Amino acid sequence: MDQIEELYYTFNIGFLKALGIWPHDKSRFILLKRMLIIVTTMTYIAMQLCVFMTTKFSITLFIRILSIVCVSVIIILHYYFFIYTSKTIEYLHYLVQKDLEMMRTKLENEIIQKYAHIGRYCDFLICLYISFVIIAIIIIELFPIILDVILPLDEPRSRNLLFMVEYFVFRENYFYTKLLHQCVFLVICGSIIYATATQTLVFIFHLFGMFKIASHRVEHVIEDSILCMSNPEKERTICKRIMHAVIAHHEAMEFTNVIQSIFNAPLCVIIIVGIFSLSINLFGFVEATVSKDVDNIVICFLLTVGHLTYLFVANFIGQTISDYNGELFKVAYNISWYLTPVKSQKLILFLLQKASKDYYFTIGFIFAARLQNTTTLINTALSYVTLMYSFTY
């Protein structure tokens, strides 16, 4: 376990432990952490929905509330999902550890470390984006207060929260208390996004590394030093190398199937809510642009970028898995198989048959994650936006 933490985790393991979703944490306070996070987030979402009880309904109000509520629900679903599948995630850590122990050469270790480094770089980008969004929202809300200090007026400027929340008290009262509640909610949601995304990327980049190692082993099945051996020794060496290549590919496919089995059901729900949320935020951006509502333009723009990034990354990962599987077939086909003994040729033929099948990483049981399908999902969201726009205007 120490090897996994050293290779894949830096400070993101602290977020997983703080949120109570680190599967190896046996602390007595883990249940308390989860309850505090669930209560804090669910009460804030409930207070957002309470706005419909005290404010006259309008399409603008509907868009403004649901644009935040849908995103909040998606984040909470991710959190529930990681709690529910903690045992399976722990098993995936075991598979990662087993794969690290089967590295045979220094070059294979370098391949794994290369993908771990890329994963850490992606972790940094995710942390930077989340921090930017949270800081931008807080600055926008504190802007009237900052102006009062720099350019004071006879009366203090109006202080309103950027997100509409109903606390059943006068809006100007308890502003800092409400702002603190909102900041806590934003930090928790940002931490959940960062922790779950980085945990997922650990598995994804390890999977990429295993596919690359399988291709590397196939590529080096036949070398000049082996061809100079006698036939019996040559056959044993080639068969052993093919066996190691098949094992690496089998481990990668097993890892993929385990990930797919735990992601399918929750992602089926998340895709439905996510497409609805993307449609709401796209329409909110259009509506805010027409009405020149700067606050809503900023919020909807940031949330829309987040949705589109999520869609693109999910489909890019699925496409990359398919490409790595196809790369194994190309490498096996291009080796000098005709220089090997007949028995070795049969094993290479078996490897070709195994790698020749197209493989697609499915999401939600029916949706194949490919780059082409990104446009399909976006077009679906745009069709809902067009429908909402036709009903509104």
Q: What does this protein structure show overall?
A:
The protein has 393 residues and is mainly alpha-helical. It contains 13 helices and two strands, in the order H-H-H-H-H-H-H-H-H-H-H-H-E-E-H. A two-stranded antiparallel sheet has the order 1-2. Helix 10 runs parallel beside helix 12. The radius of gyration is 26 Å and the shape is elongated. The N and C termini lie far apart (58 Å). The model has no long low-confidence stretch (mean pLDDT 80).
Question: What would you say about this model in short?
Answer:
Helix content is 80%, strand content 1%.
Largest sheet, if any? 2 strands, antiparallel
Number of strands: 2
Which value, in Å, is the CA radius of gyration? 26 Å
Quaternary organisation: single chain
Gross morphology: elongated
Please tally the helical runs, counting DSSP H or I stretches of 4 or more residues: 13
Spans where pLDDT lies below 50 across 5 or more residues: none
Order of helices and strands: HHHHHHHHHHHHEEH
Instruction: Give the end-to-end Cα distance, rounded to a whole number of Å.
Output: 58 Å
Strand order of the largest sheet: 1-2
Please report which band the strand proportion falls in: under 5%, 5-15%, 15-25%, 25-35%, 35-45% or over 45%. Answer: under 5%
Helix content: over 70%
Overall SS class: mainly alpha
Overall mean pLDDT stands at: 80
Into how many domains do the coordinates divide? Answer: 1
